[in-house]
C-alpha cells in the first residue's frame, strides 16, 4: 500500500492541482478564444479599447489555466496580474479576428488569436515570486552536435538559451567534457537516442536540449559569404529516452567571412530557439511536476543501510520503490553495505513498516528487505529471499512515532506556485 501523508491527500483532493499534460507544438502556442465584455455605446471608442485590453489579460490567464488548476490561478490572480503587466510583452502575436455586439449593444464580443512567449512568461512569474521549481530545480543540459565547427559559437548559443532558463530558476549543466557527441543522423536512430540520453544522465541532467546545425556556406556573387542554416533542435527527457519536442529553425546570414556569416545566421535563430525549444522544455516540466500549496511539508533525512546485496539491480529496485513514495534518494559511499540518504515526509516508523511489508523484484527474482536495526534517523535492512531469514537479528519492536506539529491554522491559499519534479522522473542514480 502506498504511504502518503493525510495532509498531502487533503491537499491533493481539495486543490485538484494536477498539471495538465499538454501537447508540445513546434511553433509558439497559438490559441484562439472568444470573450464577452460590457459595452457602452455612448463611449464607443473607450469601451472598445477597454475590452481589447481586458482580452489580452484574459488571454494570458487562460493560457496559464491550461498549465495549472483554476483554483490556483484564482487564488493568485492579483500576483499573476502584476507579474504579467503589460501583457503585450508576453504575446509574440495577438490579433482580433472578429468583433461583434449583442442586439442592444450592451456587450462586445471579441474573437482573438495569439501566440504566447512562454519562456518570458515563466521568467516574469519566477522573478515576481509567483512560480518556482522547488528545492531541487530540474537540471538541464544544452548539448550541441559535433557539426558546430566553432566551439565558441555553440557556447554563445548556450549562453543565450541558459540566460533565459537561469532567470527562471533552472539549473544548467555544462556540456564541456562530453566526448561522444552524435550527429543528427545518429540521433534519429534508436541507438542515437540512447547515446544522447546516456550523455545527459552521466551529468545528472533531468532534461536535454540537443541542437544540430545544417549549413550551406558559400561565396556570394557580389563578394563575401552567404550562410543558409537549419538549426534542428530536440528536447528530450533522458531517463526514459522520450522526445518531448522537436523543430527546425531556418535562417540566413551574410558577412565578409563564412564564420561570421554563420554567426549572423545563429543570431537570427537564437531568439526563435528560446521561444520554441525553451518553451517546449517548460511545457514538459509543467506536465512532469506536482503543484504544492503553502502547507506544512515536514521532510526527514534518514540514513538507510542495505546489507546482503547480491546484485546492483537489487539496490536500484529499493531506490525505485522509495521514489514511488515521493522520497528523494542519494547514494553514499564507504562502510559495509550500500548506504543512502532518504529525504522523505515519512518517518522511521513508516519506513520500518514499509520495508517489512514490501516485496521487491530485480532481474526476474523476488526478494524481501526486513529491518534489522534502526535509530532516531537511521534504518538498516538486509536483503533475503522471500522465505529467508536475515543473518542479523530482525528488529521486532517498531520504533515510536514522533509527535508532529499540528497543521491547524495552515493557510489553504498558496503563497505561490511550486513545481516539484516527480521523483520518478529525475535522472536515476547509477548503482555499481
Descriptors:
alpha+beta, about 425 residues, disordered N terminus, 11 helices, single chain
| Main sheet: strand order | 6-5-7-8-9
Biggest beta sheet attributes:
5 strands, mixed
Number of helices: 11
- The shape is flat
Please bin the fraction of helical residues. Answer: 25-40%
Q: How big a fraction of the residues is strand? A: 25-35%
Which structural class is indicated by helix and strand composition? alpha+beta
Question: On the 0-100 scale, what is the average pLDDT?
Answer: 79
Query: H/E series, N to C?
Result: HEHHHEEHEEHEHHEEEHEEHEEHEEEEE
Say how many strands there are. Answer: 18
Concise account of the structure shown:
By secondary structure, the chain is of the alpha+beta class.
What do you see in this structure?
This protein is of the alpha+beta class and about 425 residues long. The chain is built from eleven helices and 18 strands. Strand 16 and strand 17 (about 380) form a beta hairpin. Helix 5 packs across helix 9 and helix 6 runs parallel beside helix 9 (about 260-290). The protein is flat. Keywords: Signal.
Topology at a glance:
Layout: H1 6-15, E1 29-38, H2 44-65, H3 70-75, H4 77-83, E2 91-101, E3 107-116, H5 118-127, E4 131-132, E5 139-144, H6 151-167, E6 171-173, H7 184-187, H8 190-202, E7 207-219, E8 225-237, E9 242-255, H9 258-288, E10 289-292, E11 300-307, H10 312-323, E12 328-331, E13 338-344, H11 348-357, E14 359-362, E15 365-368, E16 371-374, E17 378-382, E18 417-421
Parallel strand pairs: 4-18, 5-6, 5-7, 11-17
Antiparallel strand pairs: 1-3, 2-3, 7-8, 8-9, 10-18, 11-13, 12-13, 14-15, 16-17
Helix pairs in contact: 5-9, 6-9
